């Protein structure tokens, strides 16, 4: 989305909204009303209310526990139902906030004003005025439902060829504008490139490889055992969020170089158990899975063949 808009000279304005203790501020009465507004079965609602009725909490300070007090806000910690209840509650907040709003940003003719995962929200707009309006709407509706936006942790990011400074205010305070922001584990950059995110993924994958050095250095573990470990514990770290990458040839080369390095690391010291020699020109890991079929000797194509001894001429 960002890449296409920047190609056509249209900037993208984003506000990464942070809520203060979002799960602990779910208002119980508001939650029951929200469930009814979404036409949830009344019997199920009464069952859920029964889970929360009579709930109390106490404060512990210096090994002393205070008097219990009734809980009227917050979802139960560790309960598998809590994320579902929070999503329903927050969906109501966002629907009220976005009512009547016409987004100027779209993906494939589909209007887009925000991205959401639980309480991690990115408000998206085509202008600073629209972003300010979205911020005000979300803040107002969140307050009505007992939730509060953090002005210190909410950040603004502008994706443009020449990003301009913007003044987005929340509760009278100007939100900080940043050049990069980590959203759901992926690094967003104001220039729209994936260079920073790819670099961070390579560092994380390198750390994952290093933690498994005892396995890679073991000559008693075969390649057919090491390779699935590499695919399960290293590749997912490297490729996290790769669906959103816009790669340049330079970044593709770095990824390929890392893969080759990992493959060499996984192949060395394998001769005692797997009878596999390290090759100077080893295949990338994705090809290795197709060519590795159990313990076998892999010859090096670059090795010089020793000619057979010459027969002595008989006199």
Automatic annotation (TrEMBL):
Describe the location of the Reverse transcriptase domain by residue ranges: 1-188
Name the InterPro entries for this protein: DNA/RNA_pol_sf (IPR043502), RT_dom (IPR000477)
PROSITE patterns registered for this protein in UniProt: RT_POL
Leader peptide range in chain numbering: none
* Organism field: Pomacea canaliculata (Golden apple snail)
Q: Which PANTHER family match?
A: REVERSE TRANSCRIPTASE DOMAIN-CONTAINING PROTEIN (PTHR47027), REVERSE TRANSCRIPTASE-LIKE PROTEIN WITH RNA-DIRECTED DNA POLYMERASE DOMAIN (PTHR47027:SF20)
SUPFAM superfamilies per the record? DNA/RNA polymerases (SSF56672)
Note down the stretches annotated as region Disordered. Answer: 274-315
Name-wise, this protein is Reverse transcriptase domain-containing protein
């Amino acid at each position: 989305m960002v890449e296409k808009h920047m190609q056509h000279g249209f900037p993208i304005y984003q506000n990464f909204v942070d809520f203060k203790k979002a799960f602990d501020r779910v208002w119980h009465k508001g939650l029951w009303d929200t469930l009814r507004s979404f036409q949830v079965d009344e019997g199920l609602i009464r069952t859920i209310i029964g889970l929360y009725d009579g709930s109390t909490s106490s404060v512990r300070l210096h090994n002393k526990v205070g008097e219990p007090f009734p809980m009227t806000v917050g979802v139960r910690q560790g309960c598998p139902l809590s994320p579902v209840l929070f999503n329903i509650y927050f969906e109501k907040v966002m629907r009220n906030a976005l009512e009547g709003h016409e987004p100027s940003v779209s993906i494939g003719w589909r209007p887009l004003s925000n991205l959401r995962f639980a309480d991690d929200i990115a408000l998206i707009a085509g202008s600073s005025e629209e972003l300010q309006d979205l911020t005000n709407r979300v803040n107002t509706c969140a307050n009505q439902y007992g939730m509060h936006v953090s002005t210190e942790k909410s950040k603004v990011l502008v994706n443009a060829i020449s990003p301009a400074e913007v003044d987005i205010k929340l509760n009278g305070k100007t939100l900080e504008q940043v050049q990069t922001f980590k959203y759901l584990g992926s690094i967003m950059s104001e220039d729209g490139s994936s260079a920073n995110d790819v670099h961070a993924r390579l560092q994380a994958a390198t750390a994952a490889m290093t933690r498994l050095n005892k396995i890679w250095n073991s000559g008693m573990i075969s390649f057919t055992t090491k390779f699935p470990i590499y695919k399960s514990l290293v590749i997912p770290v490297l490729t996290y969020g790769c669906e959103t990458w816009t790669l340049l040839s330079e970044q593709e080369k770095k990824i390929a170089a890392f893969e080759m390095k990992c493959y060499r690391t996984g192949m060395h010291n394998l001769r005692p158990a797997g009878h596999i020699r390290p090759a100077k020109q080893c295949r990338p890991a994705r090809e290795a899975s197709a060519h590795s079929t159990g313990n076998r000797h892999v010859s090096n194509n670059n090795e010089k063949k020793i000619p057979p001894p010459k027969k002595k001429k008989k006199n």
